[in-house]
Amino acid sequence: MVNEFAKAIKDKGSPYTNCFGFLDGTVRPICRPTNNQKEFYNGHRRTHAVKFQSVVLPNGIIASMFGPVQGRRHEAYILHQSQIINQLEERFYDINGQPYHLYGDYPLLSYLMVPFKRHNLTKVRLEIA
Length: 129
Description:
The chain is an alpha/beta fold. The protein has 5 helices and 6 strands. It has helices spanning about 1-10, 35-40, 75-80, 85-90, 125-129, and strands spanning about 20-30, 40, 45-55, 60-70, 100-105, 110-115. Strands 1, 2, 3, 4, 5 and 6 form a 6-stranded mixed sheet that branches.
């Protein structure tokens, strides 16, 4: 099944052959709590919040959801707590033994593919950028 997801992403024009899903976090604002306000305050969004991390497959299904986590926590902390990288390392390989990857905007780790600036831009678009 995972190989079908990787093929679907590749067929849509991805340069990656073993990418099977997308990893991302979301910040959901909440009312200011009576207690522990500092735990839930997200300085980047300037609001009290909870955070979630999810893995979404190409068919739109959420394969994994982790959270809620206090709004002050960094994405890297949530990634570590979710143990998603450990799960990928343990059991997500193709028939040739190559690891499957998730695509996300997290720190560069094995099993995670990240976007990078100016990738696949045409010469004209590079001149504009």
